Amino acid sequence: MKATVLILSLLTASVASTRSLFSVSNQNALVDEPQFSVPGKNPLNFCADPKDYILTVDYVDLSPNPPLPGQKLTITANGTFNKAIEPGATVFLQVKYGLITLIKQEADLCDNLPQIDMSCPIEKGVMTLKKEVDIPKQVPPGKYTVLADVNTVDKEKITCMESTVVFSRG
Question: What is the pTM of this model?
Fold first, then answer.
């Protein structure tokens, strides 16, 4: 589950560093695809049916939900890795503000694990994690979307999540 919190933390930190916050939506508005909600108190969806994902998520709770500018975001998550995650795993991150792409990059998952006091390999089994992230006060109002697609070195799907968050003026 630490990987999910890492992903959420990276998403939030990445967007916060561009003075934005995270969200993800289905970018294909012409297709009415089913939503696969991530369990817990959060605005997250899996990108597809998570039955074959390596990470089985029990819950991801965000507080406050939805995230608010100028407040600390607490992420609490729990889940099970159905197999160990070896070095070479990647996370593809895309962050949009409306239709404008702010971030579109692939990074090594293991290189980012020290941010949450972890390292590779991630052992098979249950994990629980709590992480706090500061959200800047100056988040411009608008719709933010985030996509995080995480795969093993062999391109097996660890998880894929997306979310949409709308910040209002005031």
Answer: 0.79
How far are the Cα atoms of 52, 56, 71 from residue 167, in angstroms, in the given order? Answer: 33, 30, 13
Q: HSE, CB side, 13 Å, CA atoms: give it for residue 88.
A: 7
pLDDT 10s digits, 108-130: 999 988 887 788 999 999 999 89
Residues in contact with 91: Cβ distance below 8 Å, sequence separation at least 6, in sequence order: 7, 10, 106, 107, 109, 112, 148, 149, 150
Residues near 82 by beta carbon (within 8 Å), at least 6 away in sequence: 54, 55, 56, 124
Locate 91 and state its tokens: 């996370």
- pLDDT tens, position by position, 141-152: 999 999 999 999
Tokens 């290189």, located at residue: 111
